[in-house]
Amino acid sequence: MNYDIAEIKYKLKKYGQEHLLNFYDTLDENKKEELLKQINEINFELINSLYSKTKESTKNENVQIEPMSFIDKSKLNDKYKFYEDIGKKAIKEGKLAVVTMAGGQGTRLGHNGPKGTFDIGLDSHKSLFELLCDYIKEESRKYDVQIPWFIMTSNENNADTIEFFKKNKYFGYEKNIYFFIQGELPMVDTEGKILIGEDGLIKEAADGHGGVYESLIKSGMIQKMKERGVEWVFIGGVDNCLVKMVDPILMGIAIDEKVTAAGKSVVKANPYEKVGAFCKKNGRPSVVEYSEITEDMAKATDENGNLLYGESHILCNLFNIVAIERMGNTPLPYHIAFKKATYIDKDGNKIVPDSPNAYKFEAFLFDAFGEVDNMVILRVKREDEFAPVKNATGVDSPETARKLYNDFYKLS
Asked: What average pLDDT does the segment 136-162 reach?
């Protein structure tokens, strides 16, 4: 595509970002094209607005937070089969697709590559991707249907992820796997200047798991789902090796209750566990982050001694495809994170910080919950469905996930 350099320079001057072309003449033709494409796609008004928010002091918003009701899967009794039959019917009719958010790298685990390619140390030495694929294939056989698997990558790891799948012959599930890339936003320094990376291009960061809705629409994946007759979409993360993406109980309840969104929870390990908790904000479904909850709220209990805000959001959510379309077309609020970023300054010097020096902006998946009228929360057992791999050692590490996985499948 041919870009009007004069028009781009005018736009950059208007927003005080002229430095983005400082090293344009030193780039090869491909990178020149890529840089101009990046600049052309930036919403400078949005970036200015987000930067302005970094200067605002935290305000105590007038938000009323209340506990949210849930259904305990282990206590359904005679309703269990009722919901299961409804869900099974929908799955067998091909109405379910699964989405795995896999845009991250395994850096925190000491792994060089996409997080989904990480081997958690099982005797089989299967990667997280293969473990998830094994599960989807088994469920497809159980319900005699091909459940489509949509994998959200990032610009950073898309090529490596696809190469990994090609190398492993897509684990025998090639015709049902689709890849799409999540969105990104430029990072800015403390003066609001957009950063330039070491490659001479604009330094961007993934826009958070809340970008999944918009990315599904823009990439054409929602259309592919519709073509396959999909009505319900399960969205989960790549780092939970026990995630149950195909759950007829969750589907059955959502269908019977006539809601367009449902989520799974596990009971918080303790009042101070660093997880978000389902709640209602001003009467709408939401999640309160552990950093937002007061000590009194964290410790509050009901008459039976159960935590009022004890239902952890474990990034296991089911949506009707209509809800995804609605949420994907409704801009979510962006949260600000202050991070360390290596970049090239306006004079061509490489800046390697030893403390946070730049802002990234990301949306959270649960911020869209308020767009639905109501949602169902299904409490499940941690040991059955939640074995995250986030840290190299200690809590939520390969060691803890491996034990949970082996215990669940009785492998040791």
From this structure: 97
The tokens describing 226, both together, are: 């519709």
Span 341-369, average pLDDT:
94
Considering the domain 64-408 in this protein, what is its CATH number? Answer: 3.90.550.10
Beta-strand relationship, 261-267 and 311-320:
antiparallel
CATH 3.90.550.10 residue window(s) in the chain: 64-408
Residue 253 makes CB contacts below 8 A (sequence gap 6+) with: 71, 83, 87, 262, 376, 378
Q: Which of 134-143, 205-214, 215-224 has the lowest mean pLDDT?
A: 205-214
pLDDT digits 0-9 by tens, 29-68: 999 999 999 999 999 999 999 999 998 865 546 789 999 9
- CA angle 22/28/33 to nearest 5° reads 75
Lowest mean pLDDT among 241-250, 264-273, 370-379: 370-379
Do the Cβ atoms of 265 and 314 come closer than 8 Å? yes
Do 389 and 276 meet the contact criterion of CB atoms below 8 Å apart? no
- The pair of three-digit structure tokens given for residue 78, joined into one six-digit string: 């005679």
Residues counted in the chain: 412
For 394, the token pair is 């200690």
